[in-house]
Amino acid sequence: MLYFINDYSEGMAPEILDAMASSNMSKQSGYGDDEFCISAKEKIKKEIGKDAEIFFVSGGTQANKIVIASVLKNFEGVIAADTGHIAVHEAGAIENTGHKVFTLKSKDGKIDAGGIKRFCENFYADVNHEHMVYPGMVYISQPTEYGTLYSKKELEEINKVCKEYELLLFADGARLAYALGSSECDTSLKSIADLCDVFYIGGTKCGALLGEAIVFTNKDICKHFFTNMKLFGGVLAKSRVMGIQFDVLFSNGLYERLGKTGVDAAMKIKRALTEKGYELYLDSPTNQQFIVVDDLQREKLSENVAFGFMETLENGKHVIRFCTSWATDDEDVNKLIEIL
Amino acid sequence: MLYFINDYSEGMAPEILDAMASSNMSKQSGYGDDEFCISAKEKIKKEIGKDAEIFFVSGGTQANKIVIASVLKNFEGVIAADTGHIAVHEAGAIENTGHKVFTLKSKDGKIDAGGIKRFCENFYADVNHEHMVYPGMVYISQPTEYGTLYSKKELEEINKVCKEYELLLFADGARLAYALGSSECDTSLKSIADLCDVFYIGGTKCGALLGEAIVFTNKDICKHFFTNMKLFGGVLAKSRVMGIQFDVLFSNGLYERLGKTGVDAAMKIKRALTEKGYELYLDSPTNQQFIVVDDLQREKLSENVAFGFMETLENGKHVIRFCTSWATDDEDVNKLIEIL
Amino acid sequence: MLYFINDYSEGMAPEILDAMASSNMSKQSGYGDDEFCISAKEKIKKEIGKDAEIFFVSGGTQANKIVIASVLKNFEGVIAADTGHIAVHEAGAIENTGHKVFTLKSKDGKIDAGGIKRFCENFYADVNHEHMVYPGMVYISQPTEYGTLYSKKELEEINKVCKEYELLLFADGARLAYALGSSECDTSLKSIADLCDVFYIGGTKCGALLGEAIVFTNKDICKHFFTNMKLFGGVLAKSRVMGIQFDVLFSNGLYERLGKTGVDAAMKIKRALTEKGYELYLDSPTNQQFIVVDDLQREKLSENVAFGFMETLENGKHVIRFCTSWATDDEDVNKLIEIL
Amino acid sequence: MLYFINDYSEGMAPEILDAMASSNMSKQSGYGDDEFCISAKEKIKKEIGKDAEIFFVSGGTQANKIVIASVLKNFEGVIAADTGHIAVHEAGAIENTGHKVFTLKSKDGKIDAGGIKRFCENFYADVNHEHMVYPGMVYISQPTEYGTLYSKKELEEINKVCKEYELLLFADGARLAYALGSSECDTSLKSIADLCDVFYIGGTKCGALLGEAIVFTNKDICKHFFTNMKLFGGVLAKSRVMGIQFDVLFSNGLYERLGKTGVDAAMKIKRALTEKGYELYLDSPTNQQFIVVDDLQREKLSENVAFGFMETLENGKHVIRFCTSWATDDEDVNKLIEIL
Q1: Which chain B positions have a beta carbon within 8 Å of D131's beta carbon?
Q2: What is the ipTM of this complex?
Q3: A257-269 tens-digit pLDDT
Q4: A297 exposed, middle or buried (CB, 10 Å; 0-12, 13-18, 19+)?
Q5: Mapping DSSP to helix (H, G, I), strand (E, B) and coil, where does residue B94 land?
Q6: pTM score, two decimals?
Q7: Would the CB atoms of A235 and D30 count as touching at under 8 Å?
Q8: How far is residue C10's CA from residue B334's CA, in Å, rounded to a whole number?
Q9: Distance from CA of B164 to the nearest CA of D (A)
Q10: D94: chain A residues, CB-CB within 8 Å
Q11: B2-7+254-339, what's its fold?
């Protein structure tokens, strides 16, 4: 069986395993004060080219939940794509903190400045808006849940609308390595850091064993964030676990390199899919490739390949996903292409 | 100026004022144990023809918030029309208690059994549904926010789907008197009580000074509801305020009669609107009438009439609302008709 | 039976009932924009001698809950007396909003500046305080749940400690009329307004039918408070109910006069209790009098008087409460004294 | 410098590191369906000798928060020792979920059946208890935050009171290995599982890199617990991280052995402390030893040893803690004893 089902099937990048092993018995402070966390934070700050407050948590839903709940006021909600992770697949983690998720209709997994602007215009134009949830933040994913990318220009436009309506901008980077590793990506860690108030750098799906690095470039909104992390259950006593991983990921360009491995494999598969006449569901430049297949194709493929099932369309065809990762083997890619 | 702007512009039905005045210095227990609350509950139970647990709170958002938060589990959300009061105009009161509001596209303010069923089928068919909010309740309004009515048959169908998917059924009756007072309404308090697990009988918009009566016919779901009311800030020390009002409202058919007054006025206006060629936005058999007007009409009308503005349509025309009530004066109705 | 069981047994002050009756059919805007609310707010501002933002809600727990939840940050808690209403008798209304109630040991229902200071010193001295709930507010009641009063000097000292540790100061005035009506009270509405960031003026227990007036003299902390009220279920559509009541209460010194009626009756009872050798549980200068009785006395009294039971002491004796109010009849007081 | 400051200074037990390394590139399902989680759960069930539902989360506060919030009803709180972790050092994580923590005065870190019974008796005897938070659960720690142990008899008594008052019993086993590894401990995993409705087996402080295993022996209370974990941010995509660790910890008696290593070192230190005339703050049979020192002793010790500071007593002396762990080196213990 070939595995193209997700990007978290393996353990961790060998470089991280080595660092874990070699540091295992060193005695370290906890709760973020270990030498690895300190070093990792410096490296990330260097990479984004500006000062920031950085915190590590163990997973993506946790990152989204704690960031959003910490910065929104009681009466504010967060605007997201209707396909956004917080809107669908986090079991109401955001609502559980008391905040509404406003959903905008997405196109290829993305929302745009125009849609956000219209939403805010309508909100403030409503004579009853004091009886309604105020928009307080915009949540985007880079890359999106459908593998697509926001261009730098698109982010700039969204940033501009956010400033106009006093919305904070938060980017979920659960798969950020696969954006940075894509040749079609014109946003860097630096530009994301410049344009967002806060974002997170995904580890779990990008070669780490677990963990995400939350980066606040807007330092006004993260006062006592550690205590917020604690009360939401997001603080690890042994913070070294996070420190070691991100210290290695941000040494020698490893993070971007891991992303590139995944994207290169995906592009190879994408070219094969196109050549063989498969219908792409959308045009993804990153590690997730979505195609439309009929019953027969789906059944046939599933004999030899583990892939993701997304939905059945109105025409009866199915959207499936091939997902590569930092750990994808070129041999497996070749075998998959043969089968296609 | 003629006032057709809402159904809460005046104080209370004179019968209630009289009862308040005559009982004013009688000494009563508080927190629901006063003689008026006890009497009112008996009258309501008689009216619905079955046993029930009944509680009084001071407003509609409070009723919705406390009922929903009390009966849902952490991981459950509530299904509502996208035009439902809890979805739009309660400032996130439901999300504030940790629960997601799922919205279904409504038609004339209503959702139907088919839509609820499809939603649940899709939910349980999703392989990832354990990562998603579970549907736990259906919220409907009778009449709806657009004045329309669920027929008994429609409620029966919704009830059936709810049973199938273990959803509780909750009816918001903020304007229930105007359903009961409508000749097109084939649901009675009895049938609503039979088909819903819990509903509330609106006072604030139906002739009371303030307050709503929450009726649990499903007694399994309201254990310790008093304490839930307390912790959500919904308990009144002087419960007599509620008791007196609902005791009077449910004496001598007053509640339905107040509703009929409002609906009769609305029907008279509706007939005039139709005769004079106005475009009805939808066909409402209750106390709210929605019409589509152009800029000129809107401006003209606003010189002499206070009415509600709902929204501007894509064609540039406006949806406005004439709202009657238990207090609407026939003379005012005639004057309005002259102006139209 | 004589009723000295609480201060919410009757309806409302006759002046309020008159105003309700005479204004009943006038058409008013809702949600706080009615002419009575506007007038009442002006009168209260005049009374406190400074600008303020004022909001009306229907009950005390609601006032406490919404104020505290609106101004505290996620990681902050509120300091209260261990006998404070929010700490004991609100069914966890504060915790329900996500905030811890820190309790300080009280003396005669009061806490003091020294205790608050020690609490904060210990908190900030703790090396692990980032793992702990931050104190963010001090909650006091004037008069307290035991009828005692904070002196102006005590409030000034508490205010000073609050400033030192960046704590907001909030006074629960559920029975404020009985403080203002006491000859031993050296705090006025003006001094309370000067020394607290926010307080509420109790209506329910002080002659209103229902309702409390929340007064923010610190206007920095109540931005969008209306929307907070809405989402916590504390907004009344028919705000006139509140407006009329507080407009009357703050006309012609009625509020203080109602308080004085209750306190005068209580003082007469207190003198009789002392003369007849009853043991006072503590020295209360307001409308609640607590005495210690044995089994026999308790049983005997309960034959003719309805009073409150507080607790059984370790020596087997009982603390009971005689509570007077704005509605207490002098004849009843005389009858009680005869029985004692 | 000698490190006796806590039990989470090092990485993980070498056996776990080996298992992580050897399994690193194996492809595994996520979200709890990996082969390691399945195997670990079987081993734990075998160890406790009964069926159970088992879940893994990344830290102790998370375990406490999710368990408590998942099983309590809105109007219920949890009873804990005033020194309990949830009462002091979790930044209000429990209150953040809407629940009050009731604190009972502890003795040596423990509460007892008598105290719980009195609390419940008083609660139900209070005529106003419907206005108060209901006790719904008892939280204990085994060993406690002060290193002490509940005996089997004590747990049985607590269990009995819990049954009587319909309270769930939850044991926080953050340091459970150090209970199991103590010769003075007469509770086994089996007896804890028999007497508690739910408990967690601590990994983070007991030799794992991170993580805790939540064990529900009362399966009625954990329906949809996975979704609760998700919405509280406690689900790891790469569940293998947890599975591998607990699979190794519960192979060949490793978990208990790691605990014994820590306890043996602590007992050696305890004997030396006693011989050298140090004042023990209390008598701890596990890996945490608390002693009372004066300023001079504290300063002297701190030159060569990193230890924990707990509090300064009223007599000016200080309570400090020496903490050993699975990773404590015998050589370091000897060096410490020389210094004492």
Answers
A1: 31, 227, 230, 235
A2: 0.96
A3: 999 999 999 999 9
A4: middle
A5: coil
A6: 0.97
A7: no
A8: 42
A9: 19
A10: none
A11: Aspartate Aminotransferase, domain 1 (3.90.1150)
